[in-house]
Amino acid sequence: MEMISLIIPCYNEEEALPYLFAALKDVMSELSDYKFELLFVNDGSKDKTLDVLKNMAKEDERVFYLSFSRNFGKEAAMYAGFCNAKGDYVAVMDADMQDPPSLLKDMIKIIKEEGYDSVATRRFNRKGEPPIRSFFARTFYKIINKLSDAEIVDGARDFRLMKREMVDAIVAMSEYNRFSKGIFGWIGFKTKWLAYENVERVAGQTKWNFWQLTLYAVDGIVNFSQAPLYLASWSGIFLTFMSAVMILVIIIRKLIFGDPVQGWASTACIIIFVSGVQLFCIGIMGQYMSKMYLEVKNRPQYIIADTNRKKEDLNKLGSIK
Ligand code: UDP
Ligand code: MG
Known about the structure:
Elements: E1 3-10, H1 17-30, E2 35-42, H2 49-59, E3 63-68, H3 74-84, E4 89-92, H4 103-114, E5 118-123, H5 131-147, E6 156-163, H6 164-172, H7 180-187, E7 191-196, H8 210-224, H9 227-257, H10 264-297, E8 304-307
Parallel strand pairs: 1-2, 1-4, 2-3, 5-7
Antiparallel strand pairs: 3-8, 4-6, 5-6
Magnesium ion binds next to loops.
């Protein structure tokens, strides 16, 4: 019998987990042709999430948990899940039911019958989201799709079901700075998109504030595009050209009109402008360098402190070796 693994990153989700578990049990009994494995990744929750997970594991032998030693972020949690999922098909799903578990039935059917490698989901709209957040999110997708060669779909969720081949490709991308929306696009494979109306979380709070989302967006751009680096070189070339023209103008003017002492204000403006551009470009280089620095250090992406998986079954990739 083929197996479906569901990876569920959880950070302070004690309130939402019971709802999710109930919904998943329904879905699993409807999809009785498949074996299931529920792989919960407790991302250093500060509430009782781990206890809830342990109780669930006692109740149902299909429940597994990997519990991190601290909060490593959703990206690390998903990667730990991918490394340790055993299924022939693997799906990532949020713990808050914003990714409707009932969609799994359609997703597996599409992969089976229509010959796709993965089924991904996106939202039609951003209903229930603050307008300012929607605005910045849309702008981000516009920019990154211009700059990057990986296709990154607006409104895409991390909720998707994939075949084993695709999961292996993701596991092989062991970079430290992870941006899954980009990684999914970069590895390719035939993907079908399902769209659905945005659902609000069942219980608990969102874990992202505006600042974190902004940093995440900058990360996405730096991880999946070199365009900002080109911007730095091009602005350098442009300014050099401009200054050559200006020098010519000044020389000619001096030859024709003599040299009245004038223009300290414009000189000051130019100096400030050019040093601004320089600092901006150094900042861009710094962004890439800091990424390289973290990449080179080759630190584990997550550390598992507690699990009900057998020790020998744990995939050490991305964790402490
Ligand atoms: N999450 C996580 N680690 C984090 C933040 C979030 O594992 O540091 C999980 C969280 O428990 C949830 C999913 O990632 O299952 C999505 O988080 P959330 O619902 O807060 O994000 P939103 O839906 O508001 O974008
Ligand atoms: Mg959510």
